[in-house]
Amino acid sequence: MNDNGKRPAPPPLKTDEEAERFIDEADLTRYDVSHFRPMHFEFEKKTARVNMRLPEPLLRAVKAKAQTRGIPYQRLIREAIERALEDEPS
Prior knowledge:
43% of the residues lie in helices and 0% in strands. The chain is mainly alpha-helical and 90 residues long. α2 crosses α3.
């Protein structure tokens, strides 16, 4: 803990290797991880292409939302499609 009694945030990790080493070696109970959130990893290869037209304001909004989440805007669109398909009854 630091001088004000709070746990420090984990250091910035720029590569997968740095992150793996940190997780393997660090005592995570020493760090404030309250801001962490679940991540969805995409392992399946993207082999199909889609070309679609969107109103410019909608595309700007999608890109802005993706930026606030720190992900590419195409991933945000894929997630929205996946959620829409999960919500539909079979």
